[in-house]
Amino acid sequence: MYNNNILIGLYKKKKDKIKNIEYLNELEKLLKIFNGKVKKKILQRRFNPNNLTYIGKGLLKKISIYVNKNFIDTIIFDDELSFSQIKNIEKIINCIITDRTKLILDIFFYKAKSYYSKLQIKLAQYRYLLPRLKNMWMHLKKQKGGIGQRGPGEKEIETDKRLIKRSIFFLNKKLKKFKNQLIIQSKNRINIIKISLIGYTNVGKTTIINNLIDKNLLVDNNLFTTLDTNVNKFYIKKKKFIIIDTIGFIKKIPTQLIESFKSTILEIKNSNIILHIIDITSKFLIDKILFIINFLKKLNIINKIIIIVFNKIDKIKKFNINKIKNLFLKNKNIFINIKKKYIYYFYKKKKIKNKFILMSNKNKIYIKNLKKNIYNEYLKNFNKIN
User: How many CB atoms lie within 10 A of CB 158?
Assistant: First the structure.
């Protein structure tokens, strides 16, 4: 699985095409984690997905011919498919049919290291599987009965559903215990300034932490390098800080995973300062910034102290600060003040002001500037904390 792949997506309007090409490019990056190769990317323009086959049957038949000629083993759709859609597509195309959600769940399962994150992934997988059990295996249609086995005429699918629901129940119970432990740990750190890093996946959060704490945590130019919530301490002018690296976000992230990774959300909520890391070289930069801002809005923590860090400026040739300003000119949701280095956006008719700084992996001066900004925020807002 995931050796030779075709990626398929939809777009409604011409102006959405470039954005959806970027989604397919993101899928390709995700496949690199499994060393998967993308043989073809396909975008079809449709107002709505086909309820039976997601894309049109005519296109499916053309893809079927391509699959047979090019030894394709997996087709990945950019949106979550229903089980009936998968079965209908499999009748036309002879290969594995899956979707973005399943791919991300597989990546998380492959990359999870701690016992806690493994429990979270299992829970997400069960939640994904449960609504897809119906008609999943032909043998589930057979009715069986017997003493100590199943009730008269009970289907195997009902037994499987019960087993999965029971597993979900016990996983939730275990995770609740872990969550309570995290709350206790967080209370024990009440007198220490807590800083959370958030951002789109692969924006360079771990590299920034390495520079701040002077350690060598795993850095990998791949999506979802960090799945566990990592906590480290460092000092600025003898003042102790705790810095928390959280999971990177991605658009169209499965709802099952958002529900599972409540520990990350808890750490962000309990932080005193949030560093919102942005890869300035990224395409659709504004979209990604708004994606994180909307996430913070949903958590109702938009008013926290947020320092926006534009990372990887060393990768832009002849970088000029006005290049940042030009990115924001066409957007009405966010505007920028270069002279005072502030970014503004509106929330509940109130203007939110966040300071921004520039960051380069090649220059220690930027790290000193970041530390200075963190320390200044501490002096302004938290100097009563011991």
Answer: 15
Sequence length of the chain is 386
Q: What pLDDT is recorded for position 252?
A: 77
Q: What pLDDT was estimated at residue 273?
A: 94
Nearest to 203, CA basis, from 278, 269, 123, 261: 278
Helix and strand numbers (H, E) in the chain are 12, 12
- Give yes or no: residues 225 and 300 share one domain: yes
Contact 355, 307 (CB under 8 A): yes
**Domain housing 91:** 4-106
Domain end marker among 85, 106, 127: 106
Q: Is residue 182 part of a domain?
A: no
Q: 340 near 307, Cβ under 8 Å?
A: no
Q: Considering the domain boundaries, does residue 153 fall inside one?
A: yes
The domain that holds 31 is classified in CATH as 3.40.50.11060
Q: Confirm if 60 and 92 have CB atoms less than 8 A apart.
A: yes
In a domain, residue 195? The reply is: yes
Specify which of 21-25, 119-123, 268-272 reaches the highest per-range mean pLDDT: 21-25
Residues 202 and 342 in one domain: yes
Q: Name the 3-class secondary structure at 141.
A: helix
- What are the Cα distances from residue 262, in Å, to 89, 117, 168, 247, 257? 35, 11, 15, 11, 9
**Looking at the 3D structure of the chain, how many domains does it have?**
3
Sign of CA dihedral 180, 181, 187, 189: negative
Q: What is the pTM of this model?
A: 0.81
Residues 275, 197: contact at Cβ < 8 Å? yes
Contacts of 241 (CB under 8 A, 6+ apart): 192, 193, 194, 195, 233, 234, 235, 374, 378
181 within a domain of the structure (yes/no): no
Task: Work out the average pLDDT over 54-67.
Answer: 94
Do residues 276 and 167 both lie within one domain? no
Query: b vs e for 60-77, b when ≥16 Cβ sit within 10 Å of the residue's Cβ?
Result: beebbeebeeeebebbbb
Backbone angles phi, psi at 45, to 5 degrees: -90, 115
Based on the domain organization, do 96 and 162 belong to the same domain?
no
> Residue 306: what are its φ and ψ, rounded to 5°?
-120, 125
Computed from CA positions of residues 50, 51, 54, 58, in that sequence, does the dihedral angle turn out positive or negative? Answer: negative
